[in-house]
Amino acid sequence: MASMAAAFIKPSNPFSKSPITFSKAVTPPIKLPMSLRVKSNTRRRIRVSGGLIDPDGGKLVELIVEESMRGSKNREALSLPRIKLSRIDVQWVHVLSEGWASPLTGFMRESEFLQTLHFNSLRLQDGSVVNMSVPIVLAIDDDLKNRIGDSSKVALFGSDDRPVAILNDIEIYKHPKEERIARTWGTTASGLPYVDEAIKNAGNWLIGGDLEVIEPIKYHDGLDRFRLSPAQLRNEFTSRNADAVFAFQLRNPVHNGHALLMTDTRRRLLNMGYNNPILLLNPLGGYTKADDVPLHWRIKQHQKVLEDGVLDPETTVVSIFPSPMHYAGPTEVQWHAKARINAGANFYIVGRDPAGMGHPIEKRDLYDADHGKKVLSMAPGLERLNILPFKVAAYDKTQGKMAFFDPSRPQDFLFISGTKMRNLARNKENPPDGFMCPGGWNVLVEYYKSLVPADNGRIPKPEAVAA
Question: pTM for the full model?
Fold first, then answer.
């Protein structure tokens, strides 16, 4: 990760708009040692004062126009030069519109883009630094740049040819694809999924500006009720009297090892003196590579985990994080952590090789498996967030269940990789008892069964998940 420079370039428009303020009485989080070791039998349980962490920049940015203005903004959009958004572009509009990327007020202008690429951070007008490790940008081609001409604003349209947003006070600048790829992924090797999907064939120009999103982004896929905005999540945590929120991101099904980690984290926070720590189970809901389990199957599986009592519904909030996935390892995991600050989390669980993937050419991991958690512990702008490293869980053959790995008896543990889990489900074989709750495992088996086309050639979707 690039180190912090002594001076940052000042943004040309450093968040000059006045976003909606979302204020709460907040006690600064307690900074914990990396191990978060608590010995409840030897240490007296103390009472701690907690609350929801402030959003980056002190304000939660919300870019959706008031309902009374939507008609006029829609008409205005019809009169402006048009940019047609890709599926991933719409996901980024969603991210920006709800404040996951606070204090950004729209797609990045060049100064913000360069700070992100070179510093993984943005410096605000007051001199404070917030983390921002992945560019949130919109690409256009030469022809569209020429058609925009001297216009100071453009309209963003969806695939259905309906206006999605207006981009104001625009700035158009060159799209340095090679530099962007090299600095974000640490390699320009061919075969990076997000690069192939969103960058390789994108235009040679980037356009930044302040967003006015005409209506909340909806997908009408049966999952919109799980897509809570940061403001809605903060309200939910407040209604549950949360004095700490710990976030866990997944792009895979939840097995009992994950559940053990999450329940153990809550136990340790209680032992530290928190009264009601709440788990934010926040699966990634944007673009993922082709071999990942699709979102609607993952949500159905997560619901079964709650129904089977593996996680407690009273202390767990399941909500979709709308960001696309880069698979950019230590660079991207900073974005994942930063976004959860804006959703109200003051603790973040980081796993082994977070946001990582296999090298697209060589037979090895693309990133060092330990670098993600090390980078998070040092990342500029994330000092307020308590990082909880993933404790290694494996199947303990002596207990017949998932347990934390004991290096003194390695022969007793069975590591079931994601590849092995997928192969078992694909072949309709059962994992060892205690690896995953039966309801959750049945969903996974059902998913792989669905990959075999029916007689009509269509791959079925799961039944609607429970409310």
Answer: 0.87
